[in-house]
Amino acid sequence: MVSTILYQGKAKNVHSTEDKDVLRLEYLDQATALNGKKKDAIRGKGELNNQITSLIFSELTKQGIKNHWLESISDKEQLVKKVEIIPLEVVLRNIATGSFTKRLGVKEGTKLPFPIIEFYYKDDELDDPFINEDHIKYLDIASESEVANLKKQALEINQKLQELFQSIDVTLVDFKLEFGKDTFNEIILSDEITPDTCRLWDQKTGQSLDKDIYRKDLGEIIPVYQEILNRLEERGE
Ligand code: C5P
């Protein structure tokens, strides 16, 4: 396969393909936290995340959510539509935890009365700062109508994902999405949806089944990522 590496990321590399409208994502056996300050090689993680995100994106496609995912082509690789990524991390929260509780002094685990959307500016040098809609407009990252579109899509995706995780006895606490513009200039869901980018709590035990295990040094992440994959696969059977 003729390809060049276009971008080396913390969790995946992006390669070109012979088709100019298609990219190949290679999921890495690597975990990072604190914007890359904590970093470890973790064998098997790339494969699990490729499988988990592929399953979730194909489910979202079935439910009418347009996205960049095309197909998984090997253990760690998938093909996606080429998009121009909008440099925003769109975070949606259903339950208070993480940076939300630290920033606002809200009690950990508080159920939020409505989903709360936040934006972070994707910029490693600035440590992905929290920004508001005026900042987005000022920095010319997206127009007001594009921001409205991102929020609408994030809320719809939240509904679908909540149902999906509910069906495997997992609470979707919060998550991060990224969007990009496709070749028709349409804004579509991109990047990945995995336990790296979501907080997932087991409904019976309350245990974290996500990257918080790594962030907080609570143990091995492979068994919990495998648990999420197993439950998603069993659901589809
Ligand atoms: O750390 P914080 O509470 O702001 O994270 C909110 C959500 O966004 C979590 O699900 C986390 O996994 C995700 N996130 C992410 N990538 C980042 C920051 C947060 O996937 N760079």
TrEMBL record:
<keyword id="KW-0067">ATP-binding</keyword>
<protein>
    <recommendedName>
        <fullName>Phosphoribosylaminoimidazole-succinocarboxamide synthase</fullName>
        <ecNumber>6.3.2.6</ecNumber>
    </recommendedName>
</protein>
<keyword id="KW-0436">Ligase</keyword>
<dbReference type="GO" id="GO:0009236">
    <property type="term" value="P:cobalamin biosynthetic process"/>
</dbReference>
<dbReference type="InterPro" id="IPR018236">
    <property type="entry name" value="SAICAR_synthetase_CS"/>
</dbReference>
<dbReference type="GO" id="GO:0005524">
    <property type="term" value="F:ATP binding"/>
</dbReference>
<feature type="domain" description="SAICAR synthetase/ADE2 N-terminal">
    <location>
        <begin position="6"/>
        <end position="231"/>
    </location>
</feature>
<dbReference type="GO" id="GO:0004639">
    <property type="term" value="F:phosphoribosylaminoimidazolesuccinocarboxamide synthase activity"/>
</dbReference>
<keyword id="KW-0658">Purine biosynthesis</keyword>
<dbReference type="InterPro" id="IPR001636">
    <property type="entry name" value="SAICAR_synth"/>
</dbReference>
<comment type="pathway">
    <text>Purine metabolism; IMP biosynthesis via de novo pathway; 5-amino-1-(5-phospho-D-ribosyl)imidazole-4-carboxamide from 5-amino-1-(5-phospho-D-ribosyl)imidazole-4-carboxylate: step 1/2.</text>
</comment>
<dbReference type="InterPro" id="IPR050089">
    <property type="entry name" value="SAICAR_synthetase"/>
</dbReference>
<comment type="similarity">
    <text>Belongs to the SAICAR synthetase family.</text>
</comment>
<keyword id="KW-0547">Nucleotide-binding</keyword>
<dbReference type="InterPro" id="IPR033934">
    <property type="entry name" value="SAICAR_synt_PurC"/>
</dbReference>
<dbReference type="Pfam" id="PF01259">
    <property type="entry name" value="SAICAR_synt"/>
</dbReference>
<dbReference type="InterPro" id="IPR028923">
    <property type="entry name" value="SAICAR_synt/ADE2_N"/>
</dbReference>
<dbReference type="GO" id="GO:0006189">
    <property type="term" value="P:'de novo' IMP biosynthetic process"/>
</dbReference>
